[in-house]
Amino acid sequence: MTESRADRFTRDLRELKIPDPAAGRSGLWLRTGVVLMVAGPVLAALAYLMSHGTTDPLAQRDAIVLALGGVALAVTGAAVFLRYSLTNFLRFWLARQAYELDGLAERAIREPVPSGSAD
User: Fold this and answer.
1) Is the torsion defined by CA of 91, 93, 99, 105 positive or negative?
2) Where in the chain does DSSP place strands (E)?
3) Is residue 46 packed enough to be buried (19+ CB in 10 Å), middle (13-18) or exposed (0-12)?
4) How do residues 81-109 score in pLDDT, each as one tens digit?
């Protein structure tokens, strides 16, 4: 019985020992990035409400610092999320490229190259 192309691809992935992108520390960092992206704007919104709820300039300056911290959290979270999501995608893409090139090489070996005699 001949195995399908997808079955062969998954077998080759296991042989290459490429980790599952959904598991491990990568998933933890991905979720951390999402949490930071959500926590940043929430903190900035709370700081906005805090700064408009008082006339004390010292409290307003504290709110500005909190808002800037929220923006920094959101930017950091976006960078972490982007880094780990792209890493997972590119790891799988590279494995697929290697698989496709292997298939192309096998076809090139099996099929004879036609002679290019120009008449």
Assistant:
1) negative
2) none
3) middle
4) 999 888 878 877 887 887 788 778 777 78
Task: Provide the angle, in degrees to the nearest 10, between the axes of the packed helices 57-110 and 25-52.
Answer: 150
Could you read off the pLDDT of 7-50 as tens digits, one per residue? 777 777 777 776 655 567 778 888 999 999 999 999 999 999 99
Query: Which residue, among 6, 40, 22, 38, has the nearest Cα to 87 in the 3D structure?
Result: 22
- Which single residue is written with the structure tokens 């020992």? 17
pTM beyond 0.85: the answer is: no
Exposed e or buried b for every residue in 98-112, given b needs 16+ CB within 10 A?
ebeeeeeeeeeeeee
DSSP state, residue 3: P
